[in-house]
Design brief:
heterohexamer, C: alpha/beta, Rossmann fold, 5-stranded parallel sheet, 3-stranded antiparallel sheet, 26% helix, D: mainly alpha, 9 helices, 86% helix, elongated, binds protoporphyrin IX containing FE, binds adenosine-5'-triphosphate, binds magnesium ion
């Protein structure tokens, strides 16, 4: 793993250093616009000002699922293509996804209190999101519990893919069971039913949060690559093995880049 | 100017504040972690442990 | 095929690299073995003998290089044509000696396999109905040797097989190996002790 | 085929000897059922209402307590190496092991349900419903739990970590199992809907479990 | 003393590494709490009533899931032989192991109780009462569970058998733990009476557990 | 006291009977060993070598006969004066090599014990910070040999200690044993292989 990790992650580090400032800037700008628009969005005739929670709740809810999707793709990368960056991507995404899920749960409950008269109800949508949250935490625990990252990566990948079954359940739970939670109005067959006055700020916020995710994710991936570099150096130091013999280096490099291709 | 938030102002403000806090924590985590790792890499570099390729361990900006 | 005579097999590794726990154990290892030949893998503790056997058995994935068997049964993968005898005995303490052996015979596909006879061969006939939990270290080892007889497989991968065997056990095992070689089998055995059969040495010098 | 049959036979035999036989499973179930009234209070009406939930929790518990060793024992004594190397596809071998586990540990529970139903003050229909849902649902518990068991081997970890990873997967089974039983007992709601979802969950897990477990074992080779 | 301290330190270290740390314990507890409403139905008022029972069941479960390996691991790798042979009395060594187990697995649960109380709709007082009873009662669970763990080694059996042996012993703890918490929440009944019984149970188990476990290990020598 | 010189010790068994799994392994066994002497217990597989060592270590209870140590520390029981090295390594995979060793040093009461030095003695200094799970079979065995150094105990009970050790490991171990004997220790070792030190043989011929 030592070299495989160093081969093309090095390129990733260089790339990330270049794009991160731009991404961060774009995120800040869009977030500012989105916040401004949502601040001046009209009150809903039913929900009053509480509709403003939507601009936080819905992007976070979407992202909570989106991030798991990203992790699932990365897991395929780990299991099928054994791509060296894939497990880094999966690991880095988990805490961010968990945070978004937490926010979706929190803002959802805060919205639920005025709307449904209760913070929490054990219905299918809410429950499946809670399960998603627990699975995020479980994954993070798994990553932390196992020191050998490549070992943890493969186990986490299997678990992530199994957990992906939860995504359609979350998405369609409102249609399959009649729940308190309202059915999809933005992303549904036959176009959005949401008023433009809400739709535009919502979409801006959604894009802004997605950018935020991308920025944080790339930064976290960079950290993770560095952490693994530290680890493999420490392992070398710990075992005091002379890694000087250059036998086989060539084929290893070759192998690594083959894996990356 | 003040935006009127109606009777449930506290819920709305809490939502936005929570989102801000969580995002701030995430940013803090990413930044501190970066500092931490580069710091450790530099220490390892100083103590003479380098990667096989002979390059310095710290080749990040 | 590689100029092999019919019925002749050749196992060869080219540039095999083994990485365990993110540390490189050995790299660029070349080796080969042909039918009727025993290869004794030697080296210091931790040099990677067990790792090499597990690579051949498909129980570890090489970080580079290739390991192929030419002239074997084309339908089967290399691991499917190997018997692997590791440090651990693959015995269930709760089952009797005979049950343990006949399970492996059934599972590995040995038809018309005579359990009692093989137990007699390895000197465990008197213990057939004892639970495996009652066996001594050497008796456990003998029972796992009996597994090699359940079904004919051309390649035997043996990891320090004579550990815990007494003198008569080592003789018995020498006979088993000679029979196998005589029938065109191939043996790769990691060992620190003299084997009692003629063998070619493959010295590996990975990390300590 | 003989290979799988041999595996199933061996695993059942070991389970019956080491686990102390089907009786222990039933005894465990009984203990859980006896325990619950102490935890939730001895109100009979409430007990009857909670009956299916208690039985389902017992089943879940039994599977949690026994499943984490499903592959661990084979891993520790080296059998798993030989199983991986053999001609039998690992997915099938995993499925066979899970099946054996279910036959040895799950089935006795279901057989014992009527007796326990009596204890919990359930009537005939309710008991029947619970037994039926358990029959359909416990395979799903076993087959999702198997994923956790395989991860436990891969990670060299067991205990709570496994439970934490597996429990979320078994929540849906529990929900619909209890919902279907409840529907049969009290319900204006229909028994059919949750029951068919339970069946679907079982079928899905029958497919996904072995594949996920085998993938995890294969990729965890070391 | 150094011997015992070393044993405790080692066991905690292993528990944290292998079990994945205290966090896993908390996460497990959380999962159990999330699970319960599915089983018993989502009625909030009823949940609050069952709250203490659920938390107690979670603690019991966590101890059941982790305890069976308490001596088994040491037995399998031969450490137990050396511990038996050493100058440290086996009773003390057993107590040290149980203490380490409680510190690594029990304490985090208690620390997490307030958070879970929120989910279960418990108020401050109730949460405090549950946490207090858990603090006093979980050592009893560990120290009685230890007896089962020792028997599991002696009998070469684990899993359900061990649960069957341990559960009856832990029933009294559970009863008085839940009763005390309930009393603090709803009760015309006093908190003090069941609570002091709970304390007594804990003290008794602190004494009996190590002796019974050590006796079982000694007689199980083989 | 039995006419022993001061500082001289004698371990003796009289009419020892061993029953395992309700089968008699051996009976009426007499043996003795004195300070500075190594006794090699030999015999066929299943003859009861391991059982004998475990009887001395107090890990099995004899069905008859007595085993006593004369001239040892009167405060301590026989098992407390023994180091036992069995087939199993008593290592925790999750702990590092150094942690494993220093746990045993602390637990067995070795004060002022230098972990790094002992690891160097057994040739594991380079692996001190690796988790024990990463060790090869021989490295594990070396690590458990290091346990013999943690605290001085007069009687060493060794069960096939050279299994899995390479040649240099066997040399190292030979030196350890000679040192121990020179300091007045006593070694009872069950083995099938030559030991590399001078020893008296105790042949037991229990059941097969
Ligand atoms: C803790 C409680 C809640 C959770 C876990 C939750 C979860 C979710 C999730 C996962 C989505 C995305 C689903 C999709 O894209 O189809 C979503 C969307 C949404 N939620 Fe919630 N929600 C909660 C409470 C609420 C409440 C109380 C309201 C308002 C009364 C609400 C209103 C919405 C709306 C309007 C959408 C957008 C639906 C669309 O247009 O597609 N949610 N929620
Ligand atoms: N746990 C056990 N329960 C019952 N019987 C046992 C047990 N362990 C060993 N035996 C029996 O006791 C006899 C002696 O076993 P022991 O392990 O002492 O032999 P050994 O001389 O050490 O053999 P080896 O050379 O194979 O190590 C054997 O015949 C064995 O069947
Ligand atoms: N599971 C593992 N994880 C990580 N590293 C390992 C693992 N097993 C072995 N190693 C390392 O790989 C190297 C080779 O181990 P291997 O078991 O192949 O050695 P070996 O030649 O069989 O030694 P021995 O003669 O002691 O049996 C060792 O240095 C060891 O530290
Ligand atoms: Mg080896
Ligand atoms: Mg022996």
């Amino acid at each position: 793993m030592t070299l495989i990790d160093l081969a093309n992650p090095t390129r990733f580090l260089a790339l990330s250093a270049r794009v991160l400032p731009w991404l961060a800037a774009a995120t800040v700008i869009l977030l500012t616009i989105g916040l401004y628009q949502s601040a001046y969005a009209p009150d809903d005739y039913q929900q009053g000002a509480t509709v403003k929670i939507m601009f936080i709740h819905v992007p976070n809810a979407w992202l909570s699922m989106f991030v798991w999707g990203v992790m699932s793709v990365a897991s395929l990368g780990t299991l099928v293509w054994r791509h060296p960056l894939a497990d880094v991507a999966a690991k880095a995404a988990a805490p961010i996804g968990a945070s978004f899920t937490f926010l979706a749960l929190l803002t959802g409950s805060l919205w639920g209190r005025p709307m449904w008269g209760t913070y929490w109800e054990w219905d299918a949508r809410l429950t499946s999101v809670l399960i998603l949250f627990l699975m995020y935490l479980g994954l993070m625990a798994l990553w932390r519990a196992v020191e050998d990252p490549s070992r943890a990566a493969r186990a986490a990948a299997v678990l992530t893919l199994v957990g992906a079954i939860n995504l359609p359940i979350i998405k369609f739970s409102v249609d399959w069971w009649n729940t308190l939670h309202q059915p999809a109005s933005v992303m549904r067959m036959g176009g959005s039913t949401l008023d433009k006055a809400f739709l535009i700020p919502l979409l801006v916020m959604a894009v802004a949060f997605t950018l935020l995710f991308v920025t944080l994710h790339i930064a976290a991936m960079r950290n993770e690559i560095l952490r693994r570099r530290v680890r493999s150096l420490q392992m070398m130091q710990a075992s005091r093995i002379a890694f000087s013999s250059d036998v086989g280096t060539g084929s290893r490099q070759e192998n690594a880049s083959k894996g990356a291709a | 100017m003040m935006i009127s938030l109606g009777p449930y102002a506290s819920f709305i403000v809490t939502s936005y504040a929570a989102a801000a806090i969580v995002v701030a924590i995430l940013i803090g985590w990413v930044v501190l972690d970066y500092r931490n790792q580069t710091q450790r890499l530099r220490e390892l570099d100083r103590s003479g442990v380098t990667r096989r390729s002979g390059r310095s361990a710290v080749d990040t900006p | 095929m590689n100029g092999l005579k019919p019925g002749q097999m050749q196992l060869s590794g080219r540039g095999v690299i083994c990485v365990r726990g993110s540390r490189e154990v050995f790299s660029g290892l070349d080796f080969e073995a042909v039918s009727g030949e025993a290869v004794a893998v030697t080296g210091r503790n931790g040099s990677g003998k067990t790792s090499l056997l597990r690579l051949i058995a498909g129980l570890l994935i090489p970080a580079g290089g290739t390991i192929v068997l030419d002239g074997g049964d084309g339908d089967m993968t290399l691991p499917e044509q190997c018997h692997y005898l590791g440090h651990r005995d693959a015995l269930k303490p709760a089952l009797s000696v005979a049950e343990n052996l006949s399970f492996w015979a059934d599972f590995l596909g040995g038809e018309r396999f005579n359990v009692a006879e093989s137990l007699a061969t390895v000197g465990l006939d008197h213990a057939a109905d004892l639970p495996a939990a009652f066996l001594s270290a050497g008796q456990r080892r003998r029972l796992s040797l009996a597994r090699l007889l359940t079904v004919r497989r051309p390649v035997w991968l043996l990891d320090e097989p004579t550990n815990a065997l007494d003198v008569s056990g080592q003789d018995m095992f020498g006979r088993l190996m000679r029979d196998h070689l005589a029938r065109g089998g191939m043996i790769i055995v990691a060992t620190h002790a003299p084997l009692g059969i003629e063998s070619r040495e493959l010295r590996i010098g990975g990390m300590v | 085929m003989t290979a799988l049959a041999a595996l199933i036979r061996r695993d059942i035999r070991i389970a019956l000897r080491v686990g102390g036989g089907a009786l222990i499973g039933v005894l465990f179930f009984l203990t859980v059922v006896v325990l619950m009234p102490f935890a939730v209070g001895p109100d009979l009406a409430q007990l009857a209402r909670l009956g299916p939930a208690i039985l389902w929790l017992g089943a879940l518990l039994a599977s949690l307590l026994t499943l984490d060793r499903l592959f661990m024992a084979d891993h520790e004594d080296g059998s798993l190496d030989l199983i991986t190397m053999s001609r039998t596809p690992l997915e099938l071998a995993c499925a066979a092991k899970a099946l054996a586990h279910w036959l040895a540990a799950g089935l006795p529970l279901i057989v014992a349900t009527p007796v326990l139903g009596l204890l919990l003050n359930l009537d005939m229909v309710a008991t029947g419903a619970v037994a039926l849902t358990l029959l359909v649902g416990t395979p799903a518990l076993t087959f999702t739990g198997m994923i956790g068991a395989a991860l436990a081997v891969t990670l060299h970890r067991g205990g709570l970590l496994m439970a934490v990873l597996v429990l979320p997967l078994s929540i849906p089974v529990l929900i619909f199992g209890v919902a279907a039983s409840q529907a049969a007992i009290t319900g204006p709601l229909s028994f059919g809907a949750p029951f068919s979802i339970l069946c679907a969950l079982s079928l899905v897990s029958l497919v996904i479990g072995p594949f996920a477990a085998a993938a995890s074992l294969k990729h965890g080779l070391d």
